[in-house]
Amino acid sequence: xxxxxxxxxxxxxLMTLMMSCAALDLEQPKTFNERLAAGYTTVTSVRDLxxxxxQADKITPEDAQQSQNQADNARAGLDIARSVHATDPTAGDxxxxxxxxxxxxxxxxxxxxxx
Length: 115
Known about the structure:
This protein is mainly α. It is 85% helix and 0% strand. The two termini are 14 Å apart.
């Protein structure tokens, strides 16, 4: 069981650090491109943390699959937001905001499962 915790630690630390930046009022991504890049990074972190939680038996295989599906949807949403932003920045920003909100909720859930 101790080995499983070692898999969890890096992903959990990264995810917690990303979410803590907002809570600590640290520099947050401001431009569309910065926010988009942070979104892609969060998708990667969600995937990593999901795998670590599954290995540590903190989530079920079904829960892990659902998390990966949501990460797939978020990734597709980020791609759409980038595309839309090129022709309609306001709509692209709105799409990006909704995807970031969903990713933050998923991240929060995964972090809660790691405890």
